[in-house]
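WARN retry 2 of 3 for item q-0093 after timeout on previous attempt; input resubmitted unchanged.
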Amino acid sequence: MKFNVSSSLLFQQLQAVSRIVVSKNSLKILECVLFDLEDDSLSLTASDGETTIRTTIKVTDAEGSGKVAFGAKLLLDTLKELPEQPVTFVIDDQSFSLNITTANGNYSFIGVNGNEYPQMPQIEDEHREFIIPAHTLIDAINKTIFCTADDELRPVMNGIYFDLGTEHITLVATDAHRLVRYTNYALKVAENANFILPKKPANLIKNIIAKDEQDINIYFGQKNVMFEAENTVIISRLIEGRYPNYNGVIPQNNSNSIVVDKMTLLNASRRVAVFANNGTALLKLVINDNLINISAQDIDFSTAAEETIPCSYTGMPISIGFKAPFLIELVSAIDSDNVELRLADAARAGLVLPTEQKENEEVLMLLMPMLLND
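OK item q-0093 returned
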């Protein structure tokens, strides 16, 4: 086999698919990327055994066809140091040796018979499908993925829950301390369905699929889900199990409402959080008279800090504690200039909302409070 390809284009696509490659995989060939040449199309496939990604690029002056797998790390380390230029790949169909010719040099190494690479998983015959714009899918994943858990005892919480309905679609993520619910009212399906997408393929989707792609076709059955873009396909095994009733934990009567400038709250929280106890990371918020007093202390090191920022407050005076990284992460994910906090009391979950929702979208975030000792 032989073909010419842009060094930067190949490196970019190799880098994308190699995100999934795990070093020291129990199946040695999965440390490689599969090259599959057919006519002037080169497919690059990588897998970790649970998730498989394939992307296709155009090559020139192609001769022959076939499949060969090469070590992902060696290929990336070779190509990343090359300036943009055409490179020639010559692959021996018998020995699977590779020779890369550039403007100034030659690089040679040995590959593996591509027929030994595991077959790409298939979606079950009985499956469902729907279409979602790429920018919407990526935005929804960005707004939810940071709230997924790493819980071996409750694996269903280690992914994003896709709740597909006839009136809207909803994506949910929670780690039991915080929750994000993203709802899009412009998208719907013919009949209700749901699945749980693991965190790793979700990260791949948001990092690999471009926002300027048109539509993403999603096919899912009982065990697998496939995301199909113009030149990229990602297939993943689904997380099996029953997702918690997320609507049941969202409070409906948090009557104390605080509206505050997002960046003012964010920057003050970050500064004060530096002084919080490393173990608890507790931030205390005291809200009264259109002011929020944010404080933290670490008794062990005799450090403390507090800031008071303006807000618009409707409700009774309230003191509540939140874990600093969680509060900062939720507020950072808000798109609007102002943030609304809806609170009931110091012991019940608070809601974090944008004051202005995007058209046909609703984002709601929930944060459990921490116990205050005073």
